[in-house]
Amino acid sequence: MADYTKEIERRRTFAIISHPDAGKTTLTEKFLLYGGAINQAGSVKGKATARHAVSDWMEIEKERGISVTSSVLQFHYEGYCINILDTPGHQDFSEDTYRTLMAADSAVMVIDASKGVEAQTRKLFKVCVMRHIPIFTFINKMDRDARDTFDLLDEIEKELGIATYPVNWPIGSGKKFRGIYNRESNQVMTFSDTQKGTHEGQEENVDADKLVERSLADQEQVDTLGDEIELLDGASVSFDQDLVDKGELTPVFFGSALTNFGVLTFLEHFLKMTTSPLPRVADGKEIDPVNADFSAFVFKIQANMNKNHRDRIAFMRICSGKFDAGMEVYHVQGGKKLRLSQPQQMMADSRHVVQEAYAGDIIGVFDPGIFSIGDTVCATGDNFQYEGIPTFAPEHFARVSLIDTMKRKQFVKGINQIAQEGAIQIFQELKGGMEEIIVGVVGVLQFDVLKYRLTNEYNVEIRLETLPYEYIRWIENKDEVEVDKIVGTSDMKTVMDLKERPLLLFANSWSVGMVQERNEGLRLAEFSKN
Ligand code: G4P
User: Fold this and answer.
1) CA angle at residue 299 from 502 to 333, to 5 degrees?
2) Ligand 1 pocket: which of 47, 258, 266 to mutate (most atoms within 8 A of CB)
3) What are phi and psi of 271, to 5 degrees?
4) Res. 60 pLDDT band, cuts 50 70 90
5) What's 11-69+87-273's CATH class?
6) CB under 8 Å to 479, separation ≥6 — which residues?
7) If you measure from the C-alpha of residue 136 to the centroid of ligand 1, how many angstroms do you get, rounded to a whole number?
8) What 3-state DSSP class applies to 140?
9) What is the 3-state secondary structure (H, E, C) of 95-137?
């Protein structure tokens, strides 16, 4: 066994998925406080102070006050080395958010207790399901009036199609929030909101039958708790780690990230229940994270950290072995040996050069324009390719045309490069040229990014005309189907992507089903497996 087995086994790499404002940033910040990576609350992404700790690379990002790109944070807690893959929290999230989930081994789903399952959570959840990764649920903001607990669980089960196992159970909410009942120990962790911003919360555990005596809850609440737990024990499934591992059962926790309540309980259970880096598949075979030599795949490319240079950073998830700065590696898609220069890692609010990293870690390396999303890098003696990263469905489309046709060459170069980085997807009319193309994006902000970058980096002005399409489907069995003969709907448009694969765009969701019905044997897919 390699001498770094322990290093890999202590790693936990996960993403947090949520709808904006559910409390993802607050929860991340509390994790970092426990890990001692930051000293005070508010230093991760101070919306209020407009500090963009980890990704202040573009003017547009600063102007809008949001984070365009996802980042990675590493910290240590109780012997674990934890990598949190952050996903943009704004509604205008991008394809990068989805790709980030490809690098995670598990996901934490943060839900606002007053709102339940919201749109963005639903979208990100789909990607987790596709990957069959374990999903852990933190129901946040219990210090505010919450929806009925059974209703919330019911919604998760019905809307997301995953069974739930509440590890603890809330007593009241909002002004009547008294704490959380631990089903294993029969004890209640009583709520106080004095822990806000502190390093470690003081959480007191009290036997459930002592609550009234100690004036920590009234009799009615204790009776309700008793009834609810009885109902829960009778109705809900029992805990099954195997189902958790397969992403079919989500352990559920309750708390209040803002007041630092229930966060530590969650973190500790989560770290035990989640997995260390799992083997990933390359050329149909599993590569062992511990016993194989270094290997990694590129899941994100971030452009222009410095406005004066067209440099890019390629983010890689290390899948096996150990990485040493300066080591020679083999870039499989490029067919070349190279050294990864300036390998970096994010530590809370700073970026630093890494000397070594292990399976489970994420590193960002300087990319002179050689990497594409999904590329594999491995030890020089090896040659295999990790399964590619799917192309996710854009939801917004626009026709892009060049204002000054003399700049055609720069335009084509710029737009292709930006597409290669994965910020946009390019489509063409079946018989169209490159003067006028259709661009698809996951978040509308990417249109602004495209316009901004073409002007600033390539000196090209474009016109964007928004198109009404919202749904895209790849034709899975394109070789069996005559694309010209597909019986469509009035709001359907046929286009092709850069790989000349045919796709269908729709303005209405019901048209997708209708086209499916009208064309027997046509297989449509929401993701494209590259
Ligand atoms: P996000 O990253 O998921 O978008 O959410 P974020 O953590 O930024 O939280 C969104 C808002 O919800 C913030 O308030 C935050 O303070 C609040 N919040 C987070 N967790 C809890 C909680 O457990 N209880 C309560 N009551 N509020 C919570 P804001 O006023 O929008 O921003 P800020 O000015 O406080 O940063």
Assistant:
1) 75
2) 258
3) -60, -30
4) very low
5) alpha beta
6) none
7) 20
8) strand
9) HHHHHHHHHCCEEEEEEECCCECCHHHHHHHHHHHHHCCCEEE
CA-derived radius of gyration, the chain: 24
Query: Which residue matches tokens 């026709």?
Result: 399
Closest CA to 57 of 307, 364, 353, 301: 307
Give domain 280-379's CATH superfamily. Answer: Translation factors (2.40.30.10)
Give strand pairing partners of 351.
Answer: 346
How are beta strands 135-140 and 249-254 bridged, if at all? parallel
**Cα–Cα dist 145/78, whole Å:** 33
Three-state DSSP class for residue 302: strand
Sheet bearing 168-171, strands edge to edge: 168-171, 179-182, 187-190, 204-207
143 lines ligand 1 (CB under 6 A): yes
CA distance 56 to 66: 9
Per the prediction, the chain carries an average pLDDT of 86
Give the predicted TM-score (pTM) of the model: 0.88
For ligand 1, say whether the CB of 66 is within 6 Å of any of its atoms: no
Q: What tokens appear for 230 in the block?
A: 């009885």
Q: Which amino acid is at 90?
A: H
Q: Ligand 1: distance of its center to the CA of 26 in Å? A: 6
Q: Is 23 in the pocket of ligand 1 (CB under 6 A)?
A: yes
Asked if the model's pLDDT at residue 67 lies above 50, the reply is no
- In this prediction the ipTM stands at 0.97
For residues 473 and 393, give the distance between their C-alpha atoms in angstroms, rounded to a whole number. 8
Give the strand order in the sheet containing 80-85: 72-77, 80-85, 11-18, 106-112, 135-140, 249-254, 163-166
530's CB contacts (< 8 A; 6+ apart) are: 374, 388, 389, 390, 391
Tell me how many degrees the CA angle 21-24-28 measures, rounded to the nearest 5: 145
Q: What is the SS3 assignment for 249? A: strand
Locate 19 and state its tokens. Answer: 């709808």
CA of 257 relative to ligand 1 center, distance in Å:
8
For atom 19 of ligand 1, the residue with the nearest CA is 23
Q: Indicate if the pLDDT at residue 427 is higher than 50.
A: yes
Domain ranges within the chain, ordered by starting residue: 11-69+87-273, 280-379, 390-529
Class of domain 390-529: alpha beta
Please check whether the two domains, 280-379 and 390-529, share a CATH topology. no
Q: Contact, 72 vs 85, CB < 8 A? A: yes
What does the chain come to in residues? 530
